[in-house]
Amino acid sequence: MLSELAFRSPSPGDMEAAAPVPAASSSFSSSPAAEDAGSDLPLLRRVSSGSRRRRTASDSHLVSISSPPIRRRSFSRDVGRAAAETYLLTRLTLILLRYLGVGYRWITRFLALVCYAILLMPGFVQVGYYYFFSTQVRRSIVYGDQPRNRLDLYLPTDSSGLKPVVAFVTGGAWIIGYKAWGSLLGRRLAERGIIVACIDYRNFPQGTISDMVKDASAGISFVCNNIIGHGGDPNQIYLMGQSAGAHIAACALVHQAIKECGEGESITWSVSQMKAYFGLSGGYNLLNLVDHFDKRGLYRSIFLGIMEGEQSLRHFSPEVVIRDLSTRNDLPPLPPFILYHGTGDYSIPSDASICFAEALQSIGVHSKVVLYEGKTHTDLFLQDPLRGGRDELLEDIVALIHEGDGTSQAKDVVAPLARRLVPELMLQLARKISPF
């Protein structure tokens, strides 16, 4: 979310920079935590079926006396990891504070963010429980060899047949993004028979915009090449981003199209594999947003640091890049762009989506803007889903994904309404003090 100036201390995913990350494999791997747990188990020699001997008291004694050293090794390793993570957290925080300085805008927004989170805490607790304990969530799947190259999978309970897939890039002002922020969306779409892959990426100051786009592109590539192993349909992949994530995802898609013209690195996925792009509350022309962000508390100095200097703003502005490509005829066909925005969004004005759609239409790309009257930057993504009942944005997305699928459409008609997670009074108060 773009004006979330109140910086978040790097998430647990940030800490992964402290240890080497295994390279992406050709299939989904299990959680690193599970692998670590498995590595701590003593390796017991199997007893041949011919011997069929019982474990004696001395056998049990041998196992018991061998356990303490293993526990000590595990404890030592945990202490070492904690020390490394603490060091990394401190270093990244100091770097971020150097950019932020002492500014009243981001301090007041930080306080507002704390109050906002407290008011929505009843919902966050329930979503958090689902995220950590649901058997339908596969957390922290490795998709690359860089820090935070992880993604979460949200799987429908019905595993029959191949399911459509949404590759989702979360927002967070390029500073506080984290894959778990997409858990509410992942849960709601999974309940409607859609697989969701929430892609994590390096935040600033751990990485700058080029790192974020590379990470998102690597995550998209991994989904395209491996999702069939988890019941996903590789011919029905949709790319979606929210706020800063919408910007990053759009950059990844447009830059990939340029690569396919022979201007870049090796190709591991293609824009033709995307059925459509869904952009929620995104900003696509950074040249027009620098001053706006500065007034909102995302100061020019830190924003230019994230974007690798003023000279890079054009390159990382999808709208500008698209307009520059209007004279080319070798660009591969881009998928349809569906841009969702609230007219009451003060973090990123809805004009950002309107102008981007016009640029896309100028080069023949099908694009559409869906405006929600009076909705703010977080209404569509947080308050409305937490309210329960019929979620207008969710229904619009599901309708597009299930278009032409009569069976899924019939299920959508009788789908139960989502239950409320936060009382209405608390939602209204949160909306009023929201820093977004």
UniProtKB/TrEMBL annotation:
<keyword id="KW-0812">Transmembrane</keyword>
<dbReference type="GO" id="GO:0016787">
    <property type="term" value="F:hydrolase activity"/>
</dbReference>
<feature type="transmembrane region" description="Helical">
    <location>
        <begin position="106"/>
        <end position="132"/>
    </location>
</feature>
<dbReference type="InterPro" id="IPR050300">
    <property type="entry name" value="GDXG_lipolytic_enzyme"/>
</dbReference>
<keyword id="KW-0378">Hydrolase</keyword>
<feature type="compositionally biased region" description="Low complexity">
    <location>
        <begin position="17"/>
        <end position="34"/>
    </location>
</feature>
<feature type="region of interest" description="Disordered">
    <location>
        <begin position="1"/>
        <end position="41"/>
    </location>
</feature>
<comment type="function">
    <text>Catalyzes the demethylation of isoprenylcysteine methylesters.</text>
</comment>
<keyword id="KW-1133">Transmembrane helix</keyword>
<dbReference type="InterPro" id="IPR029058">
    <property type="entry name" value="AB_hydrolase_fold"/>
</dbReference>
<feature type="domain" description="BD-FAE-like">
    <location>
        <begin position="151"/>
        <end position="360"/>
    </location>
</feature>
<comment type="similarity">
    <text>Belongs to the AB hydrolase superfamily. Isoprenylcysteine methylesterase family.</text>
</comment>
<keyword id="KW-0256">Endoplasmic reticulum</keyword>
<dbReference type="InterPro" id="IPR049492">
    <property type="entry name" value="BD-FAE-like_dom"/>
</dbReference>
<protein>
    <recommendedName>
        <fullName>protein-S-isoprenylcysteine alpha-carbonyl methylesterase</fullName>
        <ecNumber>3.1.1.n2</ecNumber>
    </recommendedName>
</protein>
<keyword id="KW-0333">Golgi apparatus</keyword>
<dbReference type="GO" id="GO:0000139">
    <property type="term" value="C:Golgi membrane"/>
</dbReference>
<dbReference type="GO" id="GO:0005789">
    <property type="term" value="C:endoplasmic reticulum membrane"/>
</dbReference>
<dbReference type="Pfam" id="PF20434">
    <property type="entry name" value="BD-FAE"/>
</dbReference>
<keyword id="KW-0472">Membrane</keyword>
